Structure formats: structure tokens, C-alpha cells
Amino acid sequence: MAFEDDVRTAVSNYLDAVANGTSADIAALYTDDATLEDPVGSEPKVGREEIEKFYSALDSVPRSTELLTLKVAGGTAAFHFRVVTEAGDQTVTVEPIDVMTFDEQARITGMRAVWSPADMTVTGGEQ
Amino acid sequence: MAFEDDVRTAVSNYLDAVANGTSADIAALYTDDATLEDPVGSEPKVGREEIEKFYSALDSVPRSTELLTLKVAGGTAAFHFRVVTEAGDQTVTVEPIDVMTFDEQARITGMRAVWSPADMTVTGGEQ
Q1: Among A30, A38, A55, A98, the one annotated catalytic
Q2: Residue A74 sits in which domain range?
């Protein structure tokens, strides 16, 4: 179970980085040749450079994350979480289920985010 | 969104079948050459015959299912659910996150269940 504990810690570290880190901090949790598909069905990002660019949209906005449910099976994690971003006077909340795979060092090798517009809410910014 | 609605209905039909159907009813929701990996990391079952055999363990036991969270992105669904089986005087509850893929007719082409013993509880059967 030690490895599964490492995977649980890695998910926690990821959500901490998404909430509090830079895009470089987040990308550093991925392997060099990792893939990211968010949402599932979009063109996958390949490699840490593309992955850092994907997260760079977060660098300028306050955000928070909350883990809602986490399941681990070997080197695969599936977790339901909430990410809240403050974009100007709007608050955007998205609640995906992410599916992540990890290597033996619990570095992220792949991420696929399952969500649709139905899982996003926007509040504020209206009169 | 019509296809995503079909996928949502297919997940609902799957949980209905797991609760109330035979193993043949459940297997009929899969395509002929579908794959099933439950839990992730175990040897995948390939094809409807192996899949029906996998579910045959359920045929003799009372069970119920409850959908807890469902996310859909195109032909992929990820859902957190509870399945409760009554095995003799024991009640076994498992709460996985399943990741399913679907073809254009919303038939299941693949299922991967993410859970570990930490997500299973057994009650009863003890003095």
C-alpha cells in the first residue's frame, strides 16, 4: 500500500500546486513526456512545456481547490474535486473528475479530465 | 449535447442492470469486443462472454446501486457510485469511480474501475 499512499500524496500535492503554485510548479509534478487531455476529447497536450503553458492561464488569477473524492488503484487515481477561480468580478467553479496515471516515483504520466459545461458555474459579473 | 445525454442514460441503465438485471442483461450493454478492467491493474476481461462471466458473481446475491457523481465528456463518463451486495449475513459496500467509454450508440466499449480495499466495507456476519 506504500505506493498507493504515494499516489494519494501526489494528488494532494497536485491540488495544492493548482491552488497555490505557479504553472511551472504544477508542470514540475508531471514527467517530461506526460500527456494532458482537459477536457477529454480535446487535443492532448504532450510534454512538460505544453503542460506548463496549459496551466499558465491560472498564473494571474486567485484560485482554490478542494478534494471531494479520491480513489486509487495501483498507479491510477480518479478524483472528484472543485477548483474555484476569481476572474475579475466573476467566480468560476468547475467540478471535474480527473483520471491520473503515475510512474513508480508517483510523478504524473497522464491526466484526463472528465467534465462538461454542466459541471461549471459562473457567479458574479452581472448587474 | 444529445450524445452526452445518451451517455448519461447509458450510465443510469448500467447501474439499473447491476442492481436488478442478470449478468447477461449487464453484458448486453457492452459491445461485442468491449474490455473491462475491475479493479484497474487486474487482468482485463475482453469480449462480452468474459464480461458476462465477470458479472455472474452477482447473479445469486441481492444488490443495490446508487449513483453519487457523474461527469461526462463526449463519449467518456466517469462516475462515483455505491454498490451494496448481501452475501449471506454480510453486507458488502464498495464505492468505486468507474471510467467508461462508449460508441456512437452509447454502448459500453470499455470500463475501468478505480478502487482499492480502502473503498470497501463489510458489515454483519460477526458475533
Answers
A1: A38
A2: 2-124
Whether B14 is a known active-site residue: answer: yes
For residue A6, which amino acid is it? Answer: D
pLDDT tens column, A36-51: 999 999 999 999 999 9
CATH code assigned at A110: 3.10.450.50
What distance in Å separates the CA atoms of residue B57 and residue B54, rounded to the nearest whole number?
Answer: 7
ipTM: 0.94
B122, part of any domain: no
| CA–CA separation, A16 and B53 (whole Å) | 42
Q: How far is Cα of residue B88 from the mean position of the Cα atoms in its chain?
A: 22
Closest partner residue to A40 (CB to CB) among B74, B96, B113 is: B74
How many structural domains is chain B composed of?
Answer: 1
Is B55 a catalytic site residue?
no
CB contact (8 A) between residue B73 and residue A4? no
Residue B40 covered by a domain:
yes
For the segment A103-121, what is each residue's pLDDT rounded down to a tens digit?
999 999 999 999 999 999 9
Of A41, A99, A118, the CB nearest to B78: A99
- Per-residue pLDDT band at B126 (split at 50, 70, 90): low
